[in-house]
């Protein structure tokens, strides 16, 4: 029995030595590597200048300045063949590239046939009294001021066959006989980040 206890004691000692060896060897024989990093950024500045000043929620423009003026009432009037334009400047002092467009909304219950273009591009007819005049122009970061011209015209001579010309002339004449039709154009200049 004594021999059995000695064996038991020897086994316990062996296990204790084995556990101690594992613990010590785990403590001293371990490779480790560690890397840390951090980064910080701020939000890029968005600063579009309109007409050489800070961006504003409203801009004044004189779209119908080159049309006839009713002397008695100082009203602006349009007629077939009249045209006009307004210009504005846009500059990108932002830290991102930008582009711009001009959104037009017409109050034109009598459908006065006006067409619009931007920067000498093709004339476009509003659809549902709305029109977005967009260009491929991009405003580089810190670009110089770009002059933008929005032009309009009331086509004097309709293109097409004789029936189309006669119909256009009849519509124009009807508008002129009443002399009460009005058109109002609201322009919204939109600057948008590109990248």
Word description of this protein:
By secondary structure, this protein is an alpha+beta fold. It contains 2 helices and 10 strands; from the N terminus they run H-E-E-E-E-E-E-E-E-E-H-E. Strands 2-1-5-9-7 form a 5-stranded antiparallel sheet, with no helix packed on it. Strands 8-6-10 form a 3-stranded antiparallel sheet, with no helix packed on it. The protein has a two-stranded antiparallel sheet with strand order 3-4. It is rod-shaped.
Summarize the structure.
The protein is α+β, with helices and mostly antiparallel strands and 195 residues long.
List the helices and strands and how they pair.
Elements: H1 2-28, E1 48-50, E2 53-54, E3 68-70, E4 75-77, E5 83-92, E6 98-107, E7 114-118, E8 130-139, E9 146-154, H2 162-178, E10 184-193
């Amino acid at each position: 029995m004594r021999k059995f206890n000695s064996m038991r004691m020897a086994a316990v000692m062996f296990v204790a030595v084995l556990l101690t060896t594992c613990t010590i060897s785990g403590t001293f024989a371990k490779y480790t590597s560690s890397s840390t990093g951090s980064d910080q950024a701020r939000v890029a500045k968005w600063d579009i200048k309109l007409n050489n000043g800070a961006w504003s929620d409203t801009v004044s423009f004189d779209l119908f300045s080159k049309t006839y003026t009713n002397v008695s009432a100082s009203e602006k009037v349009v007629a077939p063949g009249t045209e006009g334009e307004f210009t504005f400047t846009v500059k990108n002092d932002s830290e991102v590239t930008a582009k711009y467009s001009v959104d037009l909304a017409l109050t034109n219950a009598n459908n006065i046939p006006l067409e619009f273009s931007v920067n000498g591009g093709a004339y476009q007819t509003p659809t549902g009294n709305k029109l977005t005049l967009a260009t491929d122009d991009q405003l580089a970061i810190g670009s110089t001021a770009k002059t933008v011209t929005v032009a309009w015209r009331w086509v004097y001579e309709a293109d097409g066959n004789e029936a189309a010309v006669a119909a256009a002339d009849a519509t124009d004449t009807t508008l002129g006989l009443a002399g009460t039709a009005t058109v109002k154009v609201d322009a919204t200049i939109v600057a948008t980040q590109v990248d």
